[in-house]
Design goal:
463 residues, alpha/beta, Rossmann fold, 3 domains, five-stranded parallel beta sheet, 18 strands
């Protein structure tokens, strides 16, 4: 195990460097030696060491500067600083300000050094395992996690819980980015089919000339290029669930064939003489309202009745503004952990911009905005300049809010509760206490506005 671990020794006294090298190599470690800051940084070209032993006093700098640079390049690297008597106070700065693992005063016993080095490497291993675990947890955050406490999303979640374990066909309707696929995942994961296949088909992404073969499969020689038999996705979903995402993008002739499959529970591959039975639970989604899709000829009426046993309408983010703080906190925690960034929070000006934006791309747009900000921010706080350009532009111009709330320049600083109360009062003053107009300005429904007014102790009429 030790032979895979490389130790960088930096000391301008050759006898000490050679002695450390011999001691470490006798224990099975790989060793690189350097006599200056420049040589130490040059040695990094050969690969990153697992730990470093650095003398505090070097001819072209000091170990404190080198420790900072080593930690900047590789935060996981553990550094032992060695120092002569009289420099201990300065060396202690290395552990506080530069991030060294330990300070060892000369002269020292080899066993003492080896013990500290072993502790340093064990600490590096534990920190690395912890970081890997956090990354895995973030990457494996369940795709059925739907965040929000607003009444609209709570009704959706209640419906999902009520119908998840049934085999009824479900149609999920909502704008792009509202989380339709998350709801579909929840329906499958909470059903008795959870251990079966979970097949997802994006009808908008499949080429028109390939979608039938992908769905139904084909036999060898069924058409030019069909050199082998192929199992269709409808067959693959047998025993599990099938998601037809953006079902209104499916060609009308295939909608007729799909209807037949749902009625007969049989699938016949292209070119096959016989059909095979299939058993799957169908979940469909669309970003078009069914009435529009039917009227414009994007959805067959008979298929609509078949897939619409249960209909779930997902509200857009602008209708569930109370959930924005919950989503912002969740995404901030998720992406600063995933990308290992030290981001403590969000500057009030940037936060007000997040609260007042209309989010035409819904939760997905908010999610991408937070991830971008975590990646590009240069300080501990996300500021306005870290947000996507369209949010910055709107803030500078003071317009283009669409169905958003009051412009950020009009919203005072303070806690979220204070900001929300001030925004409502500003909207009421702007509309001369016309509740319907104020609700529209804030991007809320009028009952929600009344609820918030009661919550904040705002009278129904102007004092």
């Amino acid at each position: 195990m030790k032979r895979a671990q490389m130790i960088l020794v930096v000391d301008d006294e050759k006898t000490i460097a050679d002695g450390l090298r011999m001691t470490l190599e006798s224990e099975g470690y790989g060793v690189r030696t350097a006599g200056s800051v420049r040589e130490a940084l040059g040695a990094l070209v050969q690969g990153d060491p697992h730990a470093a032993i650095v003398d505090l006093m070097l001819p072209d700098g000091d170990g404190l500067q080198l420790t900072r640079e080593l930690k900047r390049r590789d935060p996981a690297l553990e550094v032992l600083v060695i120092t002569a008597y009289g420099s201990v106070r300065k060396a202690m700065e290395a552990t506080k300000g530069a991030g060294a693992f330990h300070v060892l005063e000369k002269p020292f016993e080899p066993d003492e050094l080896l013990g500290l080095l072993e502790n340093a490497l064990e600490h590096r291993k534990l920190v690395g395992e912890n970081a890997d675990l956090k990354r895995r947890l973030v990457d494996q955050v369940t795709d059925t996690e739907i965040l929000g406490s607003a009444p609209g999303i709570q009704r959706v979640l209640e419906t999902v819980a009520a119908v998840a374990d049934a085999d009824a066909n479900v149609l999920i309707v909502g704008e792009s980015g509202t989380g339709k696929e998350l709801l579909a995942n929840a329906l499958h994961e909470q059903s008795h089919r959870r251990s079966g296949p979970w097949i997802k088909i994006n009808c908008a992404a499949l080429p028109k000339d390939l979608i039938e073969s992908e769905l139904f499969g084909h036999t060898r020689g069924a058409f030019t290029g069909a050199t082998t038999d192929k199992v269709g996705l409808l067959e693959e979903a047998d025993g599990g669930s099938l998601l037809l995402d953006e079902i209104t993008e499916m060609p009308m002739d295939l909608q007729a064939k799909l209807l037949r499959v749902l009625e007969e529970r049989m699938v016949r591959r292209l070119g096959a003489a016989k059909a095979v039975p299939v058993d799957f639970r169908l979940i469909s989604s669309t970003n078009q309202t069914p009435d529009v899709a039917l009227r414009e000829g994007h959805l067959r009426q008979d298929l609509y009745f078949r897939i619409n046993t249960v209909s779930i309408e997902v509200p857009p983010l602008r209708e569930r503004r109370d959930d924005i703080p919950i989503l912002v906190r969740a995404f901030l925690d998720r992406y600063r952990t995933k990308h290992a960034r030290v981001v403590e929070g969000i500057d009030p000006e940037a936060y007000r911009r997040l609260m007042s934006w209309s989010w035409p791309g819904n939760v997905r747009e908010l999610q991408h905005a937070i991830e971008r900000a975590v990646l590009v921010t240069r300080g501990p706080m996300i500021v306005l300049e870290d947000l996507p350009e369209q949010l910055q532009h709107t803030a500078r111009e003071g317009g283009g809010l669409g169905a958003s709330a009051v412009a950020p320049s009009q919203v005072p600083a303070g806690s979220l509760e204070e900001i929300e109360r001030a925004s409502i009062l500003k909207a009421l003053e702007t509309t001369r206490w016309n509740k319907q107009a104020a609700a529209a300005l804030l991007g809320l429904r009028r009952p929600t506005l009344y609820s918030k007014m009661r919550k904040h102790g705002i009278p129904q009429r102007r004092a």
